[in-house]
């Protein structure tokens, strides 16, 4: 590892004479730049997707307000008893932080937008609402439903935010897929650069043979190839990253209703993430070319 | 010092060289002769480790060639100058850079007076910036000699170094090699040019080895 880091340092320091020992490798070099550029462009989007879905998952799970409502519909004479019963049950349910029956005034306020201010609440069979706050882990909804059904038949647990859970799971999965895409892009880049490097190495088999015969060390010969491909990949990836970031920045802005789409861009310091792509591409290219070069060299005496 | 101990070699067909034992003491001057296809080039390749014997062993300073690490092999080749039969240049680099290649490849500065002197010594100064493919066979062989000696190696192996040269130029190249021998270098020249060998023998105490029937013999007065 240390040797490899030293090799990387030497590589960046540069050596013009070592550059010249390998004849220009026009096509494979351009292929490397293009591949690295295209892959970096894709990586920017995968990164944006991953970061955005991560943000979404966080926002949605926070919005999964840790609340639930229990609605009690019962004949007026049983209402008070059932309400008391439900509150008792809730007190004994693990995962319930607090529970509170809404007062008549509060209920009136909730209904006002639909029925107007003059609603005679006590004359109507309006259900009683109980506001439940969960602890961090939440309660066992099915268990609670069963107990309520058994002991307070008029009570219905309205678990109104639970429908969002699959969405949070989907956003989490999307983030994972984004990260997997980035890994795949890195692997594909390594594979393509290995192919290009192998093509360059076999096109220059005679050069390598001569260098070996006159006493050049493997590291010296490899460096000439590695340097060329690493710099090409770095330049290509930088261009691709800039293009990708520009494309993300220029995504048409939508208002809040746009939801997911609005979230696709980078925010604040998030713009620094894609800047990691070019150096990573250079490291991938360095490792791939170096492995290919040493593999070729070991076949020579 | 290079030493062969009961060395045999074959390329996969029949045995080409059999039971060869030989020492090349420091400062010695040897010719290696034999008909075309006898195995002269093969013998030289065994000397600098491009090939490994199929039996026996080749040692350099008592180290088995086979046991050297790859970097040790590289270092060893910098101490053995080789004039290859087919010269082996990098065709995209000018002559001067080709001659200086062993220096640049070992991380040393190749510029300067020494390179100029060396090119002058082999009469190639005016061609320094030419590419190898544009040179004549004789010019290439002189350039190959210049490259072989630029690291000032202890041993110089030359494979048919006068193959493409006229007599005058052959003698000049032989003279260069004899000068190097007087400076203490070990010289081994593979050639089938008997006139060249006779000319050399009249000036230096050279030994003549001959490959015959897959074996190495010391040639006597029957040259
Ligand atoms: N790489 C090789 N593979 C197979 N046979 C070879 C190879 N190189 C040389 N030979 C054969 O080995 C024999 C000796 O070759 P070489 O050492 O070049 O002879 P010389 O230099 O004395 O002319 C020849 O018959 C040649 O065809
Ligand atoms: Mg030969």
Give the ordered list of helices and strands of chain B. EEEHEEHEHHHEHEHEE
The distinct bound ligands, ions and cofactors come out as: adenosine-5'-diphosphate, magnesium ion
Task: Give the overall silhouette of chain B.
Answer: globular
Number of strands of chain B: 10
Report on this model:
The complex is a heterodimer of chains A (301) and B (223). By secondary structure, chain A is α+β, with helices and mostly antiparallel strands. Chain A folds into two domains: 2-61 and 165-299, no CATH class; 74-153, no CATH class. Helix content of chain A is 65%, strand content 8%. Chain A has a four-stranded antiparallel beta sheet with strand order 2-3-1-4, covered by helices on one side. In chain A, helix 3 crosses helix 9, helix 7 (165-203) packs antiparallel against helix 9 (218-249) and helix 7 (165-203) crosses helix 10. The radius of gyration of chain A is 32 Å and the shape is rod-shaped. The model of chain A has no long low-confidence stretch (mean pLDDT 84). By secondary structure, chain B is of the alpha/beta class. Chain B has a domain at 1-79 and 155-165 and 189-223: P-loop containing nucleotide triphosphate hydrolases (Rossmann fold). Chain B has helices spanning 40-47, 70-78, 95-105, 113-121, 137-149, 167-182, 194-201; strands at residues 2-9, 17-24, 29-33, 55-60, 63-64, 80-83, 155-159, 186-190, 207-212, 215-218. A six-stranded mixed beta sheet of chain B has the order 6-7-8-3-9-10, sandwiched between helices. In chain B, helix 3 (95-105) packs parallel to helix 5. The chains are: A alpha+beta (301), B alpha/beta (223). Chain A binds chain B through residues 17-18, 20-21, 23-24, 207, 209-218, 220, 297-298, 301, and chain B through 48-52, 70-71, 73-78, 82, 84, 88-90, 92-93, 97, 101-102, 104-107, 110, 147, 151. The structure holds adenosine-5'-diphosphate (ADP) and magnesium ion.
């Amino acid at each position: 590892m240390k040797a490899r880091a030293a090799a990387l340092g030497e590589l960046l320091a540069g050596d013009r004479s070592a550059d010249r020992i390998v004849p220009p490798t026009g096509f494979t070099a351009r292929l490397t730049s293009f591949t690295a550029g295209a892959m970096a462009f894709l990586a920017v989007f995968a990164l944006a997707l991953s970061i955005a879905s991560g943000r979404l998952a966080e926002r949605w799970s926070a919005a999964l307000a840790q609340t639930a409502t229990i609605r009690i519909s019962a004949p007026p004479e049983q209402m008070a008893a059932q309400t008391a019963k439900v509150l008792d049950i809730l007190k004994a349910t693990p995962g319930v932080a607090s529970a509170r029956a809404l007062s008549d005034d509060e209920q009136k306020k909730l209904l006002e937008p639909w029925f107007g201010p003059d609603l005679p609440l006590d004359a109507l069979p309006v259900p009683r609402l109980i506001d439940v706050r969960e602890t961090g882990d939440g309660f066992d909804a099915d268990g609670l439903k069963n107990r309520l059904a058994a002991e307070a038949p008029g009570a219905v647990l309205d678990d109104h935010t639970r429908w969002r859970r699959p969405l949070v799971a989907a956003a989490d999965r999307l983030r994972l897929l984004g990260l997997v895409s980035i890994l795949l892009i890195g692997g594909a880049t390594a594979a393509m650069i290995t192919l290009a490097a192998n093509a360059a190495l076999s096109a220059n088999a005679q050069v390598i043979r001569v260098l070996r015969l006159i006493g050049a060390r493997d590291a010296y010969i490899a460096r000439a190839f590695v340097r060329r491909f690493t710099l090409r990949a770095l330049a290509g990836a930088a261009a691709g990253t800039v293009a990708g970031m520009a494309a993300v920045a220029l995504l048409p802005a939508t208002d809040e209703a746009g939801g997911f789409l609005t979230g696709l861009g980078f925010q604040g310091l998030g713009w620094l993430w894609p800047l990691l792509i070019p150096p990573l591409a250079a490291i991938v290219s360095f490792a791939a070319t170096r492995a290919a070069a040493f593999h070729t060299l070991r076949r020579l005496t | 010092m290079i030493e062969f101990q009961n060395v045999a070699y074959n390329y996969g067909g029949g045995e080409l060289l059999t039971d060869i034992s030989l020492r090349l003491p420091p400062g010695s001057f040897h010719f290696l002769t034999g008909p075309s296809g006898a195995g002269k080039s093969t013998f030289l390749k065994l000397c600098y480790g491009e090939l490994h014997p199929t039996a026996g062993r080749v040692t350099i300073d008592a180290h088995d060639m086979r046991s050297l690490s790859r970097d040790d092999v590289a270092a060893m080749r910098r101490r053995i100058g080789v004039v290859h039969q087919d010269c082996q240049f990098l065709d995209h680099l000018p002559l001067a850079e080709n001659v200086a290649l062993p220096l640049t490849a070992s991380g040393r500065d190749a510029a300067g007076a020494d390179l100029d002197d060396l090119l002058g010594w082999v009469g190639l100064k005016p061609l320094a910036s030419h590419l190898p493919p544009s040179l004549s066979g004789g010019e290439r062989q002189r350039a190959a000699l210049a490259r072989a000696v630029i690291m000032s190696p202890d041993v110089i192996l030359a494979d048919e170094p006068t193959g493409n040269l006229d007599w005058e130029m052959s003698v000049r190249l032989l003279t260069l090699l004899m000068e190097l021998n007087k400076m203490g270098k070990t010289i081994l020249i593979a050639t089938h040019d008997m006139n060249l060998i006779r000319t050399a023998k009249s000036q230096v105490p050279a030994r003549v080895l001959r490959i015959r029937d897959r074996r190495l013999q010391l040639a006597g007065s029957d040259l």
